[in-house]
Amino acid sequence: MNCMKRRAITISLAMTLATVTSLSVHSRHVRAREMPQVTLLRTPREGIQPQTVLDRDGVLHMIYFKGDASAGDIEYVRRAADGKDFSQPIRVNSEPESAVAIGTVRGPQIAVGRNGRVYVIWFGSRAHATPPDTIPVFFSRMINSHKAFEPQRNVMQYAKGGDGGISIAADARGAVYAVWHAMGAEPGEGHRRVYLARSTDDGKTFAREVPISPPALGACGCCGMRAFADERGTLFILYRAAAQNVHRDMTLLISTDQGVTFRDTTVGPWELNACPMSTAYLSEGGERLRAAWETAGQVYFDSVEPVSLKVTVPIGAPGESNNRKHPAIAANVNGQVLMVWTEGMSWAKGGSVAWQLFDNAGKPAGAEGHAPGVPVWGLPSVFADRKANFTIIY
Description:
Strand order of the largest sheet: 1-2-28-27
Largest sheet: 4 strands, mixed
Number of helices: 0
Number of domains: 1
CATH class: Mainly Beta
Structural class: mainly beta
Number of strands: 28
CATH architecture: 6 Propeller
Shape: globular
Helix content: under 10%
Strand content: 35-45%
Order of helices and strands: EEEEEEEEEEEEEEEEEEEEEEEEEEEE
Distance between the termini: 13 Å
């Protein structure tokens, strides 16, 4: 792998399923020994669109997409808390080549719930749609032995017109939330709704999906979305609205009663009469939920106060934007935050990955990092381990 030569970057290679690059980030304002390590990891088996979850025991769970972006497969691997190598991959989709990743916004997502059970959701390829010319929302969960996944099933029972947004969340009480956006009562993005299919038995069964977003807000048709259930069981859903087809505001839905009722708040306004094909990210760390999104070629993040659930003022990546897209966010136990994003990406075109560390006051710490090699339809994922260090996978 070719890597940019940059000051204060230490590179080491390990023979694993992926190539690992370790980088030490330094700051004039913070002593080097207080700075976390940032490690770059390539997606196993030349996959794209990695999605990661680090569970309470420090086990890393990851899925990624392989094959034709319009009809490919999802693979799952895991790595022990003290391990260096990933497990042998397990195919998630029971029907071969039944997943899609084209456009980056339509890729699969993962959640880990009670007893470490893994859940995966994805848009199905049209060849596997019933009825034809629809986009099914497939779901599968890991079996009790953790050695395979159950046969896939379509959880979209009556909503029509799925396109971009899809996500999955799970809590420690056995609730699993499958979310996506689809058509509303009338045609057009200005009338699209976010739908929720809810399970209370660890994903064994799902209730019929119901619309949960305010009908007046709409939903951006080809934009991704993100769902997350925090340690308290609060459910968050981050998506891009499309009110009157021009108010493309990033909107956060919050439920404190396991998805029965929601309140909404705008976290990133944007006036745009077009679909930007953006993605969103939610993660929990340092006892707070953090959200990341794109607006007008720049990437931002904020956090949610744990008790009041108020959203803080957004923080943007420093420096000039170079078509920044597809942000990912993680915070460690010390409250330090690493935001990661792509640059130079466009339709059917790869780019580079960039990152910036922030201290626990939200101030940039150290220089911005860059590395080439984000593949077509690719995006990064990031997590913080129990030693407060960060790993970027792309």
